[in-house]
Amino acid sequence: MPHDRLAKALAADLGALEASGRRKGAETVITEMLPPAGGRGPRFRLEGQGERGFIRMNANNYLGLSFAREVIEAEEAAVRRFGAGPGAVRFISGTWSPHVDLERRLAGFHGREAAMIFSSAYATVMGLLPPLITAETAVISDELNHNCIINAVRLARPAKRHVYRHLDLGELERALAAAAKACRRAIVVTDGVFSMRGDHAPLPAIHALARKYDSAFAENVIVVVDDSHGVGAFGATGRGTEEHEGGAAADLLIGTLGKAFGVNGGYVVGARAVTDYLREVSPFYVYSNPITPAEAAAAAKALEALDGPRGAALLAHLRAMTQRFAAGLASLGLESIAGRHPIVPLMVRDSARTAALVRHLRLNGVLATGLNYPVVPRGDEAIRFQVSADHTPADIDEVLGVLERFVKAPPP
Q1: Are 185 and 95 members of one domain?
Q2: End residue of a domain, out of 251, 278, 306
Q3: How many domains, the chain?
Q4: Residues 127, 285: contact at Cβ < 8 Å?
Q5: What is the per-residue pLDDT across 29-69, written as a single tens digit (0 to 9) for each?
Q6: Annotated catalytic sites, by residue?
Q7: pTM of the predicted structure, to 2 decimals
Q8: What are phi and psi of 323, to 5 degrees?
């Protein structure tokens, strides 16, 4: 059957995305990783760019563990032992010993009763929030929360939904007070580290408000934190925003295996009663295959590396490279948002200049992500740089040199 009318409608939608600056366009295809050499970190060849190697300043691989020998060897060994895929969903015959072992390790790492793996962090949020949101639940959410939280709340249709201004605890408290008059349950949900800015939620203050109003709700106030960018990259031992903020533990903490751990998948840790319930009712768990046994084995090896001397060394180097890059931006007179997380935004505050700077970086061998209106509010246009433990001082200085050339002689 022809689809000419549908194709025409979709082409019009694509044109609207293009006109508004929201179209992502062709994807960058990485064809090869060139190992570190000569004091430089890895370089990446791209399709259509010949033999040239690029520095990735837009990857979530914060500790470089996706290229770690022991992580790769753990995955290879598990593939030979357990096969390339799980073969079924968890409750049928898709639970393998590496899944159970990884869940046990994650629960222990975070000091929780239980952990539960999903196919991704996005799936974790989508599979966690709607089953916990009833027709008598209020959801209170930071305005800069990730898209997965926004969509999960929309899907669940809570009795009350309030989106508070970014980090505005006064507005959060007013929303809790109002919800207490009409709802039996409240869920306060926030990113730990906010992915576009690198700033983080004040978890102790949020928990204090939850405790203050908890008795007003028949089914409690539950604090849910998605710390996908925090775990493994933030805190003295990589335990994320909770650790950085002094140990304020979320009721439910969501993390990812696809960023600092360098593998794939997502997870939640918390009370066993909650994970037992979700294993029965969460469609993103019940009806979807888990990560492969080999991915689970690789993630367990990455967690083992993080929770030991190697992890301490990687985190120390990551912090040093982050500080070096942030200090370099300041020395060039460029605006950033202060913080210790390896997401370091360069605030450009102009769409055309942001696009020009992204082009300049790429022409000079640097991959970085530009954030333009309407993806961000007008005036908040920025370039999101992401530092990795794979980066060396020479890499950071090279990127700063490229930026300095733009500052001194911007293109017309």
Answers
A1: yes
A2: 306
A3: 2
A4: yes
A5: 999 999 999 999 999 999 999 999 999 999 999 999 999 99
A6: 195, 229, 259
A7: 0.95
A8: -65, -40
